[in-house]
Specification:
The chain is globular, with a radius of gyration of 19 Å. Helices cover 34% and strands 24% of the residues. The strands form 2 sheets. It has a 7-stranded mixed β-sheet with strand order 3-4-2-1-5-6-7, with helices on both faces. A 7-stranded mixed β-sheet has the order 9-8-11-10-12-13-14, sandwiched between helices. The two termini are 19 Å apart. A hairpin with a 3-residue loop joins strand 8 and strand 9. It is built from 9 helices and 14 strands. By secondary structure, the protein is α/β, with parallel strands linked by helices.
């Protein structure tokens, strides 16, 4: 089992013919993903050969879905066009929409988020590494060679910390690792992923990586207390960040004591989540948990 993505997922790539799109489509194919085509209105009817596979290019997401049975779309389009690309995919009824693009205006993301209400699409991102179910499928940019299949579920705001945690726990492996992105407005939250991992029989323990700014981690802590029975280990990036500074992610703005790493650590520890001071310490805490399962 896995969450949101498995070996049967059929993936299209919006922006497949661009530089980043073609590079990462190749890497997704190498990871074993079932890529069934791309979308580019200007190149409809053509095809592209990537990783030895001939991939058709469609004019619209709806057309691509009708022709291929695709249920996942990965978006590699420039920030200015991301909102339209997302709305097109949502209108077509895509099941999972993974938005890799960074620098999407927050207002655009907020409009897409509002548009999702009542629709069947789940969005991950924007500004994220996407999702990987090791040895089955990759929808995004996570290097698939870091870690194999195993009992750990991972949800992270940070792309690079996703990769580091997968590497640190590579001897155990992962059911699914999901990078939700660090923007102020995102499609899938820590809570969404925690709920899915709680319901996934293959996931035995969960690593949750947050960062300074906002209150997502505090809300996740409240959710864990009420709904999560599996062991959760946490890490909050930004213990050394000065107050009032905007850090790497647009969402990571600290004001007063709310949103600080310490406040988040305390909220998580209050509900029984062990929180490491460094990614390596967090991995060590997870090892202890896994040894005792």
């Amino acid at each position: 089992m896995s969450i949101y993505l498995n070996k049967d997922s059929k993936i299209i790539v919006q922006g497949m013919t661009g530089g980043m799109g073609s590079k990462h489509t190749t890497l997704m194919l190498e990871a074993g993903s079932q890529i069934v085509g791309g979308v580019n209105a200007r190149k409809a009817g053509t095809s592209v050969e990537l990783a030895g596979k001939e991939l058709p290019v469609f004019g619209t997401v709806a057309e691509a879905m009708a022709e291929t049975g695709a249920d996942v779309s990965v978006v590699f389009v420039p920030p200015a066009f991301t909102k339209d690309a997302c709305i097109e995919a949502i209108d077509a009824g895509i099941g999972l929409l993974v938005v890799i693009t960074e620098g999407v205006p927050v207002q655009d993301t907020a409009e897409v988020f509002a548009y999702l209400d009542g629709k069947s699409t789940r969005m991950i991102g924007p500004n994220c590494p996407g999702i990987i179910t090791p040895e089955e499928s990759l929808a995004g940019i996570t290097p698939h060679t870091i870690a194999g299949k195993g009992p750990v579920g991972l949800v992270s705001k940070s792309g690079t910390l996703t990769y580091q945690m997968m590497y640190e726990l590579r001897d155990y492996g992962f059911s699914t690792a999901i990078g939700i992105g660090g923007d102020p407005v995102i499609g899938t939250t820590h809570i969404d992923a925690l709920e899915a991992f709680e319901n996934d029989p293959e996931t035995k323990a969960i690593v949750m990586i947050g960062e300074i700014g906002g209150d997502a981690e505090e809300r996740a802590a409240a959710y864990i207390k009420e709904h999560v029975t599996k062991p959760v280990v946490g890490y909050v990036a930004g213990f050394t960040a000065p107050e009032g500074k905007t850090m790497g992610h647009a969402g990571a703005i600290v004001s007063g004591s709310s949103g600080t790493a310490q406040a988040k650590k305390e909220a998580l520890e209050a509900v029984g989540v062990k929180v490491g001071k460094t990614p390596s310490e967090t991995a060590e805490l997870m090892r202890e948990v896994l040894k005792n399962l």
